[in-house]
Every structure is written in C-alpha cells, then in structure tokens.
Design the sequence.
C-alpha cells in the first residue's frame, strides 16, 4: 500500500543480531544489509521501492543519473531509442535537452542506510536469519530440519509481505464493490441465443 511507514534496515539488523545472540555483529553487519536488499527484491511487490520522476539534463548524448536509482521504469519519448548505463550516466543518441525519467528508487535514512516498508520487517528478518544460518548448514554444523524450517519461515513471511502489499485499500475495495454491484446477470432468454 502506498504511504506505508518505512523503517531503517539498521533496526531489522539489530533485531536479528539480538535474536541470534551474535557476539561479533560488526563482522556481519554489511552482509545483513546486503541480504536485506536481496530479500526486498525477492518480495518484489509494486510498493517495495519508491517510484520517482526526475528531469534529466542531456548534454553531449549523456545525462547524470540520480544516486538513488535502482531501476529505470521509463523515459517518455525514448520509445525507440537505444541507451546504456555506464559510470552513473545514461548514454543515448538523443538531442540535448531535458527528459523525464521514471524510476524505482531506494529510500534511505539519515545515515544513508536503506529503509524498508514496515510490512516487510518480519520477512526481511527471516531471510537474514536463513542466509546467516545457511553457512552453518553447508559446513554441517546445523541440522537439515532447522535449515528447512528457516527456509520455510522465509517463504511464508515473503508471501505474507507480498500479499499485504497487493491487498486493495478500503477505497479500492469500495470501487470494486460498486463495479461488482453494477454487473447484471445474463437472463435465461439471452443465454438461448
């Protein structure tokens, strides 16, 4: 849902460190942040990342891309234009000027760490625990059933997060019900034709 509160990935990582009783948190912190991003991509609902529009200034067939760019959704007017991204720039054979770019963005907290939809907190934590404990499983230090339980929990939490994101809002439900109530059943006479 749009407008969902967002929380810092640091909050989720701290909870995982606490729940697993990890003593040397600094050694794994950046892995945890990376895994959180992986989990967000795997949840992959429409509201996982922010949607933004920005005006690009093209000079000499290239334009500087925004720092928070994750994925280009569309550049209107560039329907048949071939372009590529390199070194933080988009390169294209277009005339100099201003062009809007529609893109997925990563929102960040004040310290520059990614923020995550609050509905995804349990799923992200499950994924981090699953990935962290996978090392022990592969090194035969963790029983298979524990690893399978962690994997199953991640799958369940991922589906829950995606489902919550895709659930219609109250306004959308009202619109659906209004539309539904305008439908007329086909009478038996019309079925004969």
Sequence:
């Amino acid at each position: 849902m749009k407008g969902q509160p967002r929380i810092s990935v640091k909050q989720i990582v701290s909870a995982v460190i606490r729940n697993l009783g990890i003593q040397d948190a600094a050694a794994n912190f950046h892995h945890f942040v990376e895994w959180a991003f992986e989990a967000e991509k795997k949840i992959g609902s429409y509201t996982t990342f922010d949607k933004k529009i920005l005006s690009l200034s093209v000079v000499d067939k290239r334009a500087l891309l925004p720092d928070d760019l994750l994925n280009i959704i569309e550049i209107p007017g560039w329907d048949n234009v071939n372009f590529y991204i390199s070194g933080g720039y988009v390169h294209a054979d277009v005339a100099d000027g201003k062009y809007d770019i529609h893109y997925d963005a990563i929102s960040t907290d004040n310290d520059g760490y990614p923020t995550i939809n609050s509905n995804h907190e349990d799923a992200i934590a499950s994924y981090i625990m699953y990935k962290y404990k996978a090392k022990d499983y592969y090194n035969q230090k963790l029983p298979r059933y524990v690893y399978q339980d962690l994997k199953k929990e991640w799958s369940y939490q991922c589906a829950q997060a995606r489902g919550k994101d895709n659930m219609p809002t109250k306004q959308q439900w009202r619109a659906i019900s209004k539309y539904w109530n305008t439908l007329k059943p086909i009478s038996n006479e019309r079925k004969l034709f």
Notes: Residues 144-166 form the longest helix (23 residues).
